[in-house]
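pasting for ref
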Amino acid sequence: MKTIEVQPTINAWRQLADTIFVPHTEDDYKYLVTVLDQLIDEVGEDETHPLASLMEIIGVLIENYESQHIPELS
């Protein structure tokens, strides 16, 4: 099992926390959709791209928001 190196993770997270977060408002949701669109433009279908897993994570955050707040999409 991997262990986390806390201090490097804290340093990296400080740079990412404004971009990757659980959306709680419609504005948060719209922002993440914009980020995902930009990632899709960059990554495309390349599953080996360094940002592919980030694209997947943001997609899951968006899906979770939609399932909780946009019933007609569920």
